[in-house]
Amino acid sequence: MAAVFANFRQYLLGWGTTQSPPPDELDLFRSGLLTPQFNGVVRLRSVAAAGQAVAVAREALTGVPWWWWVGPDSPAATAGELRRHGGVQLALLPVMVRSQEGPAAPVDVEHVPGLAVEEVGDGDRLVELVRTYRTSMGIGRSLEAGLVRLESRREDHSDIVRLAAVLDGRVVGTTVVIAAYGVAGVFLVHVAEEHRRRGIGAALTAAALRCGRLRGMRTAALVASPAGEPLYRRFGFTTSGEYRLFGFPA
Length: 250
Hints:
The protein is an alpha+beta fold. 30% of the residues lie in helices and 30% in strands.
């Protein structure tokens, strides 16, 4: 599981850094976008100075909404310390893992007529991909250009594969695979609202698993939403940990 959480940290930290480097005990990222998914803390290495770490995070993330992710790669007492210093738990998110030795998709996954899953580089397709997951996440249109810019400027491009589900020439679903540490980390699985419950999410998940296998990744992992968890269990994912998501009221 250490490799799984290292993969997740790479994904989150890839959204940006602060002007001043955080202290060694804190892994912090700041994209500058006014939405909490892309700003926050992903790991606290020691709770000995938790109060100081919270103060540092508040200062470094001033002006943007942000979340603090608490996983098993942080000390066990982290959640309690965050509460003691003003943190409020917002969600409990299962971390799901599966071996890449099994088939990429269960036998009952239906074929979606006319659907193609394509790898996305830069250009118009990247804009469409961002627009699709941005809309699905409820992020405002005003942040779209900034998200496209962040995607194109990530420093871990060699580890990233962006996949778009394309139907009738339009992007209707997305996922992003981070192939690092022997793990295919699956992120940003989104399907446009008007195209849900048609098997597109399953097609994207299968494509992400095949992509990870082609890159030699031995394990696949993701953080599941309540809506997505039943689908991932069909693919053989099991819950192997969790993230506690904290916010800090102003």
